[in-house]
Amino acid sequence: MSETIIAKRYATALFQLGQEQSNIDQIETELRTLRDIFQNNKELEKFLKHPRLSTSQKKELLNNSLKGFSKETFNTLMLLVDRHREEIILDMVDHFILKTNDLKGIADATVYSVSPLSDKEKQRISEKFAPKMGKKSLNLTNVVESSILGGIRLRVGNRIFDGSVRGKLNRMERELVSPNNR
């Protein structure tokens, strides 16, 4: 069975448990924090995957690191360690966040711009593009990328809206060199 399917099953189980306990928002916050910890500390992931470390050592590290996490989140992580599924933790987190976003009518998106966007600009982009995605709003992450020259490029899931100067120049170039224009 693929790791993605297994991660989805754990995420679904944790999501259902969160709904039953009415603490989905708390679990989501904890999982976002966990994802940030994993992304900022690559050594943690290596530690949890290390074959010479015992399950109890891995659990002890998580126990000491995740004080204050809900019992649902904590027990799910302990179960993953017990079953030697540490490699799917981040996938499980991502699937859980997708489920909560769907429940709330929200989508995570990345907007690329030449300079940092203000909160007001992010809000206007969210209001403009959320209905196109069938969502109430977008959680925008702004990435500054000077290579786009101007405008913005928005990525929501696997859809890209390219209103950047670089994108327009690339489209013009394709039109000029395409065999249909000769």
TrEMBL record:
As for subcellular location, the record says: Cell membrane; Membrane
Keyword entries, A-Z? ATP synthesis, Cell membrane, CF(1), Hydrogen ion transport, Ion transport, Membrane, Transport
- The protein's name is ATP synthase subunit delta
- Main localization is membrane
Q: Does the keyword Cell membrane apply?
A: yes
Which family, according to UniProt? Belongs to the ATPase delta chain family.
**Which segments does the entry list as coiled coil?**
none
Role played: F(1)F(0) ATP synthase produces ATP from ADP in the presence of a proton or sodium gradient. F-type ATPases consist of two structural domains, F(1) containing the extramembraneous catalytic core and F(0) containing the membrane proton channel, linked together by a central stalk and a peripheral stalk. During catalysis, ATP synthesis in the catalytic domain of F(1) is coupled via a rotary mechanism of the central stalk subunits to proton translocation.
Topological category with respect to the lipid bilayer: Peripheral membrane protein
